[in-house]
Amino acid sequence: MAAEGQEYRIPFAELRGNHTSNDRVTEAILSLMQTVVRVRMSDGSTRNVHLLGPTDIEKFGPGIATMLTYELHPKLLPILQDSQIFARLEMQILHGFATKYGMALYEIIAKRIGLKHVFYNDFETEELRDYLGVPEGKLVSFAALRRKAIEPAVAEVNLLAPFSCRVDVVEKQGRKITKLRVSWWLKTIDEQKAQWQAQKGQQADLFPPALPNALIEELNG
């Protein structure tokens, strides 16, 4: 990954799971190519870069495409290489999110969940609005922000992620909500196992037929 201009190749068979068509994978590739990652760097600057660079879809003979070749933008590489900036996002989890606010809140917590002795993060209300990706001029009142963005996002994270969370008001200036606290905690082993089984039932094509040994060891360890 450190080599600028490096090309990566992966068979479509590994991407489409049990499906016999590449339609969903192709749509996902195009979506990733149009997705812009916005990251606040350690020096305080903001970096905007496309999540996926140029791609080639190859066919070897008749039938559906068999190989994907892709590149990553060089400005994206430092983000991916820094474990404190980039969180490994599980395909099974992301596939379940129905709202961008839920996915954004999941990302906020996922890159902090491994920090020892850190169980919450305080955000200025406008800062959290920005992190969630609320369009400018939308959900202007806090009541609307809470009802349309924060509460649905918390509900989705608690349903899909291996951790639970809540968002509380921690500071007001008069009647204005100025600071919010995002708190998180890991789910119990039983909660994670039950969640895994529930997700498997809803997204069977993305899951192996049995609980992976690695996950069993992780949950029991």
Automatic annotation (TrEMBL):
SUPFAM superfamilies: Winged helix' DNA-binding domain (SSF46785). Residues 5-109 form the Initiator Rep protein WH1 domain. Gene3D superfamilies: Winged helix-like DNA-binding domain superfamily/Winged helix DNA-binding domain (1.10.10.10). Belongs to the initiator RepB protein family. This is Replication initiation protein. It comes from Paracoccus aerius. The lineage of its organism: Bacteria, Pseudomonadati, Pseudomonadota, Alphaproteobacteria, Rhodobacterales.
